[in-house]
Amino acid sequence: MENEIFKALADPSRRTLLDLLHASDGQTLNELCAPLQMSRFGVMKHLNILEEAGLITTRKVGREKLHYLNAVPIRQIYDRWVSKYAEPWAMELISLKNELERGIPMDNKPRHVNRIAIKATPEQVWQAITDPAQTSKFWFHCSIRSDWEIGSPLELWDQQGEKKAEGVILVCDPPHQLAMSWKFLAFPDAAGEAPSRMTWEIAAHGELPGVTLVTVVHDEFEEAAHTAKILENGLPIVLSGMKTFLETGSTLSGN
Predict the structure, then answer these.
(1) What does the pLDDT read at residue 101?
(2) Residue 79 pLDDT
(3) I want to staple 57 with a disulfide (CB 3.0 to 4.6 A). Which of 70, 96, 153, 214 is the partner?
(4) How far is residue 215's CA from residue 205's CA, in Å, rounded to a whole number?
(5) Which domain holds residue 186?
């Protein structure tokens, strides 16, 4: 897979497409064709190569097919080839994007859709998300605490006893779906914002036995721009850390 990723990134037109998606997420084929001096067929060919390498994903909204940056492979390459040579504080913060089939109007589509494949069962993933002892292994040394009943409070605490974030459980359907409101307390710019929403969707991979797909959608952040930016940068690291923890029992350096 690494060879496919490096091959896909080697072409400047494909790097331009990734830059376009990074700048504006969830674009149609027509929107991506406009900045490139290339035929529609040529752009489709490049998009197919990027999708086969896992660097972009798609979802349908009505009749439109939207393309999203999926930086999971880049994150994993970074963890393997770059982070061990760099100081932890210099780690690049990136976001992943992915296909999510749901009937959301075009003018209200989520901007942050994150997914990762983990060699674990849905039950193991659910346990990792809801067990404070396990969340502390990959959520920036913080524990998520709740009784996981709909309407119950949720809190994120660090190891120094400071509450970093809070919310309310909106949906709890183990081990398939967990939705919560989310409000940061420890970041001054985000502390005064309205709560946004974070939804975890967990499903066994349709083609790979023993592999679970974890999708995290952050939306309803029209009045929480700083929260959106923090989670856009942080959730990929959380997901990558959870994958490492569940598959190897170890943690990412600096997480």
Answers:
(1) 38
(2) 67
(3) 70
(4) 12
(5) 106-248
Do 113 and 211 sit in the same domain of this protein?
yes
Tracing tokens 């998009």 back to the chain, one arrives at 47
Among 90, 124, 157, which residue terminates a domain?
90
pLDDT at 92: 32
**Length of the chain as a residue count:** 255
* Residue among 88, 83, 112 at smallest CA distance from 25: 112
Domain co-membership, 146 together with 188: yes
**What pTM did the predictor assign?**
0.66
Output the pLDDT for position 88: 39
d(CA 130, CA 154): 10
Structural domain contains residue 16 = yes
Q: Looking at the structure, do residues 231 and 140 belong to the same domain, yes or no? A: yes
Amino acid occupying residue 61: V
Instruction: Give the pLDDT score at 206.
Output: 82
Please, is 202 exposed, middle or buried when counting C-beta atoms within 10 Å of its C-beta (0-12, 13-18, 19+)? buried
Mean pLDDT by 10 residues, the chain (255 residues): 82 92 88 90 94 86 86 69 46 36 46 84 97 95 97 97 97 97 96 96 89 90 93 88 91 65
Same domain, 67 and 26: yes
Phi, psi of 158, rounded to the nearest 5 degrees:
-90, 180
Structural element, H or E, at residue 179: strand 177-184
Q: Are 240 and 96 in contact (CB under 8 A)?
A: no
Q: What is the DSSP string of 65-77?
A: EEEEE--HHHHHH
CATH number at residue 139: 3.30.530.20
- Strand 153-158 and strand 142-145: the pairing is antiparallel
Instruction: Give residue 11's pLDDT.
Output: 92
Is the residue at 153 inside a domain?
yes
